From TrEMBL, chains A, B:
<dbReference type="GO" id="GO:0000310">
    <property type="term" value="F:xanthine phosphoribosyltransferase activity"/>
</dbReference>
<dbReference type="InterPro" id="IPR050118">
    <property type="entry name" value="Pur/Pyrimidine_PRTase"/>
</dbReference>
<feature type="binding site">
    <location>
        <begin position="128"/>
        <end position="132"/>
    </location>
    <ligand>
        <name>5-phospho-alpha-D-ribose 1-diphosphate</name>
    </ligand>
</feature>
<feature type="binding site">
    <location>
        <position position="156"/>
    </location>
    <ligand>
        <name>xanthine</name>
    </ligand>
</feature>
<dbReference type="GO" id="GO:0005737">
    <property type="term" value="C:cytoplasm"/>
</dbReference>
<dbReference type="InterPro" id="IPR010079">
    <property type="entry name" value="Xanthine_PRibTrfase"/>
</dbReference>
<comment type="similarity">
    <text>Belongs to the purine/pyrimidine phosphoribosyltransferase family. Xpt subfamily.</text>
</comment>
<feature type="domain" description="Phosphoribosyltransferase">
    <location>
        <begin position="39"/>
        <end position="171"/>
    </location>
</feature>
<dbReference type="InterPro" id="IPR029057">
    <property type="entry name" value="PRTase-like"/>
</dbReference>
<feature type="binding site">
    <location>
        <position position="20"/>
    </location>
    <ligand>
        <name>xanthine</name>
    </ligand>
</feature>
<protein>
    <recommendedName>
        <fullName>Xanthine phosphoribosyltransferase</fullName>
        <ecNumber>2.4.2.22</ecNumber>
    </recommendedName>
</protein>
<comment type="pathway">
    <text>Purine metabolism; XMP biosynthesis via salvage pathway; XMP from xanthine: step 1/1.</text>
</comment>
<keyword id="KW-0963">Cytoplasm</keyword>
<comment type="subunit">
    <text>Homodimer.</text>
</comment>
<dbReference type="GO" id="GO:0032265">
    <property type="term" value="P:XMP salvage"/>
</dbReference>
<feature type="binding site">
    <location>
        <position position="27"/>
    </location>
    <ligand>
        <name>xanthine</name>
    </ligand>
</feature>
<keyword id="KW-0660">Purine salvage</keyword>
Length: 190, 190
């Protein structure tokens, strides 16, 4: 997606070899107009999948998921990392290991909000090692629902996320795939 | 806003005297169609304010803020409760006391994303004691920007939030104001 790649080149900042800072438009300040174009592109790529629900994870997935959901006319569910005071007792849970924080955390979704008839599109801002996506796939699988696809805004193509998802025979669509960020220079795949 | 009040009556659950569970459409599963109506209503109520930015707080404010921002054509910024690995060093910070969790937490916004020319609309899902809103107002004030208004989806009218905001002479618009929830029965103001 050219618009997104141009935005990454003009506004992203490479910190070290693996960290791409895109907080001016993606995960702290949000460029809602760009999100709409992202939503339309996800729609185009998954339009034959009869999606019934979009699943994401708090916090930075929520904005993308909500804007995208408008193009599918479906509700969003976001998995919780941080337990609220009034979360349902009956939840699907999965364990996600975060390399950035070097520890595991639990994600939870109330059993009420995914059922076996759902065709779920998983949306997230980043794909790196694929652990968050794998946790969300695990939750959909526990609900006996179908994972119809995974839509990612920025994939770090030099990490292992893609393999984890494709090994499960799930359609993965990343709108920008970064091949390398050596010496601060962002190179995209194709 | 009648549509919202009807949704609260049909789908909300009162837990105890002070907790209203609305996770089927507001803060776990998200009814994006309803959020669009909420966004339009915020636009109607603040349309004369020349808003340049919408500020909210992770996680459940983000969806409402993003959908609403479409009607103002402005970016969203969400204050972070949980520090990411690549947050700017230069931030505005405020301390928020959570009654539900009986402890304080810090919220942070990078100094890059609010400047003194901004006219900021603060959006959140709930107003209860007003501590989160006060923290966001504090951050906008630190940036020497203008708080043009506070837009809330559900206000617990029996708690003190409104007074805190109105004492600062800020326009507060809550789309549903709950007067009482005694014995599980939700009564709205007007």
């Amino acid at each position: 997606m050219e618009l997104l790649k141009n935005k990454i080149l003009s506004s992203g900042k490479v910190l070290g070899e693996k960290v791409l800072k895109v907080d001016s438009f993606l995960n702290h300040q949000i460029d809602v107009e760009l999100f709409n174009e992202i939503g339309k592109e996800f729609r185009r790529r998954f339009e034959k999948k009869h999606i019934t629900k979009i699943l994401t994870i708090e916090a930075s997935g929520i904005g993308i998921a909500c804007i995208t959901a408008q193009y599918f006319n479906v509700p969003v569910v976001f998995a919780k990392k941080h337990e609220g005071s009034n979360m349902d007792k009956e939840t699907y849970e999965s364990e996600v290991f975060s390399f950035t924080k070097d520890k595991s955390y639990k994600i939870k979704v109330s059993k009420k909000y995914i059922d076996s008839k759902d065709k779920v599109l998983i949306i997230d801002d980043f794909l790196a090692n694929g652990n968050a996506a794998a946790g969300l796939i695990d939750i959909v699988t526990q609900a006996n629902a179908e994972v119809s696809g995974v839509g990612i805004v920025i994939e770090k193509g030099f990490q292992d996320g893609r393999k984890i998802i494709e090994d499960k025979k799930i359609q993965l669509e990343s709108l920008a795939i970064i091949k390398s960020m050596d010496e601060g220079k962002i190179i995209f795949e194709n």
